Amino acid sequence: MNKEIFEFLKHNKLITLATSDSEFPWVCNLYYVVDDNLHFYFLSSPQTIHAKQLMENNKVAFTVTDTHQTPTDKKKAIQATGIAKKVTDLKKVIWFISQFTKDPKKYNAKEIVKSIGRVVYEITPTKMKFFNQELYEEEGGFKWVEIKE
User: Fold this and answer.
1) Helices and strands, number each (H, E), in the chain
2) Least CB-packed of 42, 45, 113, 124 within 10 Å?
3) What sign results for the dihedral spanned by CA atoms 45, 6, 124, 101?
4) Under-50 pLDDT residues of the chain
């Protein structure tokens, strides 16, 4: 099933992230990169509402939806929960920037990270549901994804 998930993720680049703190919930859309372990990475300013909320509560919910589908198409999407944290490992940050820009020769990842004032975050999924009505029609249109630690 992971092959189908990675194929789906390859064609969709926006993640909708839900965060919350003691005051209120918040939702935002972000561009993401995913690694081979189905960990999701995104870049954000520490001044955003979602980044501030992550400092108080690192539990998140998120979705990735095929934004090209119409109301009559068979549905494809991911719904998940996870734990988000700042990435402090410079090698991981450089990997993210190279994946994010898709042209590592053109960009110096270390300089980008220093100059943009942004932080790379990693989401480790705790629960994940993969909707794909083309593949899983008999199972109600979805399958639970096994999360490996």
Assistant:
1) 4, 8
2) 45
3) negative
4) none
